[in-house]
Amino acid sequence: MPTLNARHAVYAGSFDPLTLGHRDIIRRGAMLYERLTVAVGINPEKRPLFSPEERVDLIRQVVAPLGNVDVAMFEGLTVRFVRERGAAVMLRGVRTLTDIEAEFTMSLANHVLDPEIETVFLTASEKYTHISSTLIKQVALMGRDETARLLADFVPPEVIPPLTAKHRRPS
Ligand code: ADP
Question: Would you report the helix, strand and coil content of the chain in percent, each value rounded to 5?
Fold first, then answer.
């Protein structure tokens, strides 16, 4: 009798901030699995733009229309969190060959750490392959009037006001 639920997947990442690419993976994952948990990783070595609480709050707003998606934060090994939640699947999105290489190594390591948990990859939609949280932070940093309009091509609408507020120049 398996202890983990194969119909429950966890999509873990930094989501600093959530992008249209992430939202696309969440929507597609929510169609494939009965339950999807989006998990915001707390990495003490990174200095994020948004606090873990801010990221969780933003993602909750974005996934509100999806009935089978919940949002949580975690620290430490992802596989440990996935097991704690009782899920059997780790969902990841891949954009490029470089992503695939890194994700492949990570999935092998995770399989050694917990052989009952499988990593499942979804390929990024063509229209979102160029989007990364790093690029978005660079665009937001420009802090110009047209920034909000430019960001609309990269992040969900809910993310734009908090993102521009981070870099608003005092006038
Ligand atoms: P991490 O720091 O764990 O890589 P990210 O927040 O950058 O976290 O990404 C979380 C997951 O989403 C990863 O599997 C990543 O490859 C995937 N991802 C990132 N950007 C996109 C995108 N534009 N389209 C599809 N998947 C993406």
Answer: 45, 20, 35
Rounded-to-integer distance, Cα 112 and Cα 12, Å: 18
Distance (Å, rounded) from C-alpha 16 to C-alpha 120? 22
Q: Cα–Cα distance between 92 and 89 in angstroms, integer? A: 10
Q: What is the CATH number of domain 5-127?
A: 3.40.50.620
Which two three-digit tokens encode residue 104? 């492949």
- What are the tens digits of pLDDT across the range 124-162? 999 999 999 999 988 888 766 778 888 999 999 999 999
Atom of ligand 1 at shortest distance to CA of 94? Answer: 16
Closest-CA residue, ligand 1 atom 17, reads 93
Is there an atom of ligand 1 within 6 Å of 107 CB? no
Sign (positive/negative) of CA torsion 18, 21, 24, 25?
negative
